[in-house]
Design brief:
This protein has 104 residues and is α/β, with parallel strands linked by helices. It is built from 4 helices and 5 strands. The chain is 37% helix and 26% strand. The two termini are 19 Å apart.
Length: 104
């Protein structure tokens, strides 16, 4: 299951040193609801290798501002604490898998 990432726990998760996939979403966002189940599947498939989580932009304002997220869904791919890829808009599972595999 994808982790709930918040303004409060992001730095602790990042400190674990694993690559991260962070999905910025909101309950009212239609494309986000399409991406959500894919993110959940990927969290199960890559468990233990990659931290995969979701940031509710309505409940967390700091992280979206910190990463310049203006549209949702936005999925960030983070390695060694740095954003290496940013995908904006709904994507298919294969696209996400390709980017996650590039992190490993």
């Amino acid at each position: 299951m994808a982790k709930e990432i918040t303004d409060a726990n992001f730095e602790a998760l990042k400190a674990e040193g694993k690559p991260m996939v962070v999905d910025f979403w909101a309950t009212w966002c239609g494309p986000c609801r399409m991406v959500g189940p894919i993110i959940e599947e990927l969290a199960t498939e890559y468990e233990g290798k990659v931290i995969i989580g979701k940031v509710d932009v309505d409940a967390n304002q700091t992280l979206p501002m910190q990463f310049g997220v203006r549209n949702i869904p936005t999925v960030l791919f983070i390695k060694n604490g740095e954003v290496v890829k940013k995908l904006v808009g709904a994507q298919n599972k294969d696209t996400f898998k390709k980017e996650i595999d590039a992190l490993l």
